[in-house]
Request: fold
Amino acid sequence: MNLSRAPRLAGYLARATADATPVDPAAVAQLAALDHLFGHAPSIAAAIVAELRDQRATLKLIASENFSSLAVQLAQANWLTDKYAEGFPGHRFYAGCDNVDAIEAEAVKLACDLFGAEHAYVQPHSGADANLVAFLAILAARVEAPLARELGQTDVAKWSRDDWDRLRRAFGGQRLLALDYYAGGHLTHGYRHNLSSRLFDVHTYGVDPATGLIDLEAVREQAMRVRPLILLAGYSAYPRRIDFARMRAIADEVGAVLMVDMAHFAGLVAGKVFTGTDDPVAHADLVTTTTHKTLRGPRGGLVLCRKAFAEHVDRGCPMILGGPLPHVMAAKAVALREASAPSFRDYARRVVENAQALAAACQGEGLHVVTGGTDNHLLLVDVGRLGLTGRQAEAALRTCGITLNRNALPGDPQGPWYTSGLRLGTPALTTRGLGVAEMAAIARVVTRVLRATRPDGDSRAKYLLAPEAAAGARAAVAEMTGAFPLYPELGDVAAESSNS
Ligand SMILES: Cc1ncc(COP(=O)(O)O)c(C=O)c1O
Reply:
């Protein structure tokens, strides 16, 4: 087959196979897919290639992102996307689900084995969905099931209007106690602009203003006062470990269900960096996660739970979800298998080692690191002390090839849009192969750029960046990205796209 003569091809594959070097089958598949796409939707193919070019040329420090393997990516790109499979393995509302059954059952088993969970539900399309599934499963187990027993009827579709109203009223008053959004919690944990705050009577705990740490004794006292149905632990922007054994004790003392959202640090649990009291699965009733952050899988979510909640969690469809995404469940299975390999433990260990090296180097450069360091994969830097908003700092760094995100700090005077902080994470760069020496270099570049940036007048968004500092930073980033190529097996795809 002479691919280079095919008129509708961009030639990605032909160019890659033209030289004598043996070509990686995954790379061939990706390049052939790009060629095919180019014939159908050139602008989309070009945007995909442009994204690769961008990710290759920049240093990604976004704490919630990673680089999945080509195997994870390829598992999603096929005809499984065409299949409806509402229900769960062996119990579907559609015919022809045998292969999806096999895929989902394998993903469930891999998740249970990897995390030591009694039950897993791998259908949630995202972390937000996984949290909704968990919330509704808890309400079903703790509020709906007792009423159903009292009424002698488990099928809610058969309840009278009055009984249904009773349930709705009972649902409405349930209390959720979770980490405040402004102290590093996630918006699905009761943020006013999210559905969770409408579903529950939300109470939040914060961090100690002096230390930046969660004070578990204060959480205990609050839990005693609030008596929540759900005590929720987990975060998007908190750089320290949480003692889940103590969280369990608090939940038991007040009769709450303990739920942990480990979306950010699931990879550290899978990689056995977080064990003992740091392992949420060993202590919580339900654990939710995304699969695409430190876990390094496809975009998606999953729920792990004790057997007591399994039947309610498995009703994620029809409670919250429609049909599952079989192609994504296949990719989750691939990622869970990868995370079960010994090399993933080494990866997880290096993620934390790099984060700690980055935090120490940032402090060494004179930056203020919230809580004085990190125990996990992320750190928070206070740029307010440099006279900048997070928005200005984020934008200035991005023009120099460093991609990260601004983040509100506890009690942030600039609010959640402009913010006073930056969140830096190491999962992606660790996948790319960077180590502690590079973390020190990155801290130097970041500090140099921040010190060379100042607000433009009164604006909280516009900034001025000294050109020589920007040029120096870009050169340093180019050196590092060149030394640690991203998806090297794909070859020079970006250059080919611009030539074609
Ligand atoms: C702790 C936590 N939970 C849930 C989510 C939501 O995940 P998704 O964006 O996949 O809905 C996030 C995303 O950042 C998160 O940090």
About this structure: Residues 342-484 form a domain with the Aspartate Aminotransferase, domain 1 fold (CATH 3.90.1150.10). The CA atoms of residues 122 and 457 lie 50 Å apart.
